[in-house]
Amino acid sequence: GFTVLTTMTLALGIGSATAIFSLVNATLLKELPYKDAGRIIHVARIVPQTPDPQGWNSVECETWKQSGSSCNAIAQFLNQKAYLTKGSETPLLTRGAIVSGEFFSLMGVPAAVGRIPVAYEAGSAEMPSIVISQDLFVSRFGGNRDLIGQALRLDGMWRGNGLYIVSGVMPAEFQFPLKEDFWLPMQKVEF
Question: Where are the alpha helices (DSSP H) in 82-187?
């Protein structure tokens, strides 16, 4: 009885310690899979009466870049949800990010399939590019490389006709800013 109880207590303790270390290692100790990950920071501001941190607008970011700050590069992102369809498929609610031109070069992670447009500005005004996640590529499209160059529709977007040309697929470990399904180019707004 005593030996069994002692063995079970010891096994439970070792198992718990291993689980906690695995969690701490994955979230706090292990470096992010990006070029110079130790030099990447996320800057946001807290606005009273809003549930989430707020980002900076394009004018503020441009001012910060030109002010001679100690940052080598600045990229912006804005989280976005949209329904994705290809042809007559059933719409799928997806989570993505609208990113500035410097985003992918700053992260230093190349596409696993296809390519990331130069400065992420490629694509015509009628049909801009979209980069999708490895998870979406495999789960929704079966990992079919013929998807590159094909059009996807994102309903719920605030601009254009919602059609985007797939230019690339990111590697499975790339999940910035969160676990995104897609990345779209940020459009400059002139005032």
Answer: 103-107, 134-141
pLDDT at 190 over 80: no
CA dist 153 and 156 (Å) reads 10
What's the DSSP call for residue 28? I
Asked whether the CA dihedral 120, 121, 123, 126 is positive or negative, the reply is positive
Q: How far apart are alpha carbons 26 and 65 in whole angstroms?
A: 32
In the three-class reduction of DSSP (H, G, I as helix; E, B as strand; rest coil), residue 17 is classed as: helix
Nearest to 101 by CA among 74, 84, 121: 121
Q: How many CA atoms lie within 13 A of 139 on its CB side?
A: 10
Max avg pLDDT among 55-59, 88-92, 128-132, 176-180: 128-132
